[in-house]
Structures
1.
Amino acid sequence: MSEKVKILFNPSCSKCNESLDLLKGFSCEIEVIEYLKDTPSENELREIIQFLDIKPQNLIRKSEELFKVNFEGKDFSDEEWISIMLKFPELIERPIVIQGNKAIIGRPPGLILDFIEN
């Protein structure tokens, strides 16, 4: 496999660490992006959402306290959700694995195996 694989990663997340370990089992170049330090730009976030083929609200971590306190039960447009994720990147679901023009949320991390093999 020659195509670089990117992973949006939080080092304190067990699922991210498990996913990174799985990726290391493949012969591919891995780019680790700590998205809380290196937040995706608006264009990058839009591209990730497009690659995932989901609505922006489906990329939100609904278990986060920040979400529960400030956003739960409220109705936002796609544009507003994107703005919210850019302002509060901790609300972005993780890990996200990107290869070429496709992406997957690695929950559970085993999903990555089929994704990388295809």
Note: The chain has a mean pLDDT of 95.
2.
Amino acid sequence: MKFARKLWQRARNLLPISGFHFDRPLVLLQSDDWGRVGLRDQEGLEELRSAGIALGERPYDFYTLETAEDLCQLKTTLMRHHDAKGCHPCLEMNFILTNPDFSKMKAGGWRQIQLLPLSEGLPAGWVRPGLIDAYREGIADGVFSPALHGTTHFCRAAVERSILEDGERHDFLRKLWQAGTPYIHWRMPWIGYEYWDSGKTEDERFLSADMQHDLIGRTVGIFAKTFTSLPRSACAPGYRANDDTQRAWAQHGIRVAQNGPKSSLPPYFDRHGVLQLSRTVEFEPATEPDFSLEACLRQAAGCFERGLPAIVSMHSINLHSTVKNFRSRTLKCLDEFLTALESKYADVLYLRDEDLCELVETGSYETEKGSVQVNVLAKKFTKAAARRAL
């Protein structure tokens, strides 16, 4: 069965499908990891250092959690800009909807993961006044658009398997959890991603179709409680999604799937009716040592020349400021990036994922400024040929 599945996947990569191209520059902003706690501020940093964990080797050692002020500054930057129709750029924010409930886990002897929904607050020791309100204000102002990332970023089965076994992994998790930090992924890749268990064999790493369906259903429910709306766009943690993931998303109302920046395929509908988008501009000042604004502008220009949207990838760490100030540089670069696009491309349009889906289906999309029409051209391509061209 697994061999047949692989053969079918290879065959599908050779089948022609319709990719969508556009006659004017389109820009989408997509961002992951919102709502996910990490290093518990300066106090948490000192706790982990006292426990013998040396932090500072990589930027993600300082991943923490956004503040209301971080979101306010981001919103202010986005609202300074507008496209040819007068619409502000809108950040598609992919949310992790729960965090470990460290108090309950401690009471249970650290033997099982207990989760606290974002709608019910943050774990003990974490303080972020006004954070949920700041999310909602940005959404109401039209510059934030909430989307689905996951219940957890890590694979729960992989982590619980490690905590039940004595050894280095068990000890490292205990140190992190006692300091209010769920994990530091680059130091422990064995935790996997929500739908993908790195401890299994290659053919068994993705959770079963039934498990993914149930998990995504629960996540959608938490999302609805948090934002009083249903998600229409999703991005799998670590970009680890398979056909079962896509089917479950479609069954729970997801219209758009966000994919990582390595494929650069044109937007297309998969067999479940989900619009597949590939990120094309990596905008990560906090984590890329050689980050270049000019390179990002070249990537965007290359998309426009091919009739493709420039889909910008920017993870939430870039806007964090409490342990290490990544926010100031990122917002300066983002302001310059958007200014350069608006100056060079007078007809540029800023879209949300939902807008692009509406556009390819109808040839137009609705905004607060009215209906916007764009010529959409469907061109046949195969995934295999597109990837060889990269």
Note: The longest strand covers residues 26-34.
3.
Amino acid sequence: MTWEIRCVYESQDGLGEAPLWVEEEQALYWTDHVGCRLTRWSPESGTAKVWETPGPVGSFALRQRGGMVGASDAGFLAIDLDEGQFRAVVDPEADRPENRFNDGKCDRQGRFWCGSMNKALAEPSGRIYCLDPDWSVRAEAADFAFKCSNGTAFSLDGRTMYFADTQGQVIYRFDLDPDSGHLSNQRPYLSTAERPGLVDGGTVDAEGYYWCAMVGGSQVLRIDPKGAVVLAIDMPVPRPSCVTFGGANHDVLYVTSQRIFMTDEQLAAYPQSGNLFAIEGLGVRGLPEPCFAG
């Protein structure tokens, strides 16, 4: 397998996250969490549009009825980019100011899942939440606590949720009941303790393999359904942060990256840090991400 890695947009994000390919627009959206901005980039024109966000937005997804749903320091958001509105709807952790919401995605039934995390990475105060299409929210996996949530993705049949405890250095699998939306049977999928870096954002390809960025480890991994790493791609920057498939045939792997937590010497050595990258020639395709049904 031969692939090519290109820097396709010099976004210089502090913390690039949550890349989302929008089929109808043939464009990629992503957020800069620390820069408080959301970017839309067109590979055909090479141009981008940037919206300022009222605070850090950790993740987002399209809504079936238009606009987006998102997750932030203020809980779950209804986003209307045409009007430039980021409206807080419900915050299940209003009583936990030490936390914020981080990585999230929609399952195959149109529910939006997002994990919270401790802002200072000091305490295991994070929880997993499910936002149902009626905008009611509930905590799942009540006995599971962690410092930083990441890597949320869903199997092809929608019956498995992948979820990474970044600081704990473990990617887990949960059984997901497609009707009730409840999680059960938490078990380890892959320990990353012996690998460089920490697990960040992930996705699943059309063959059911899981992909993730290893922030601080300069790699993107492809993992088979049994939990074996079958491919490790060395990135030209040390802190790749999240991955998603896009392009007209969903055969381009887009990778965001970050500049935060890097020293001046590291930034001088890796000046493309914080930019958007595309990996082509993998011979693998992804799937369109589901929309929020609310």
Note: The longest strand covers residues 183-191.
4.
Amino acid sequence: GAKVGQGLGELASRIPGMIVSLVMAIVSLYFFLVDGKKLAAFARKNSFLNPTQTGEFMDSLATMARSVVLASVASGLAQSLLMFLGMLIAGAPNLGMVTFLVFLFSFLPLVGAAPVTFGVTLMALISGDTTQALILLVSAVLASLIDNFVRPAVLKGGANIHPMIGFIAAFGGLNLFGISGLFLGPIVAGMFMVVLRMNLKSQ
């Protein structure tokens, strides 16, 4: 009980910082959407690379950004689907609401959808339905693990970076930038690989 209380206290202490990071990410996204074309034109005009390399760099950056967002959405959908199937098999109530919450919470760093999935499992166990609790527990564990496979696989397919690099970059970015680092980390790592490949071609 003391360890659980300590863990919840640490999580609660991180929530304000997570909220601030989320707000900053949303505001930044808004201005990038509004002035994104102007920023891209400025970067192309003042790039230290030649026009061909600049075009390749900008195209790779756009592909990388789309892949990172797609990876997060795909991971959330995979977790939601697993929990949906588990609850459907177990006959658990509030199917739609829990599935939506799993998708929503999947974007949170570190904890992800675990509070929802394991919370539903705990409620089933408290109610005395051990069979339902066991099915939900298996679904919750699978939903927690699948993020480690879906996200790197999507990043590898769309952004052309190794799954291990994408995985490490996401957690490194999270440590440096907060919640926005989940998106910025793989983008920075991917752009480093693009510049490295350009340099190797030019030699």
Note: The chain has a mean pLDDT of 77.
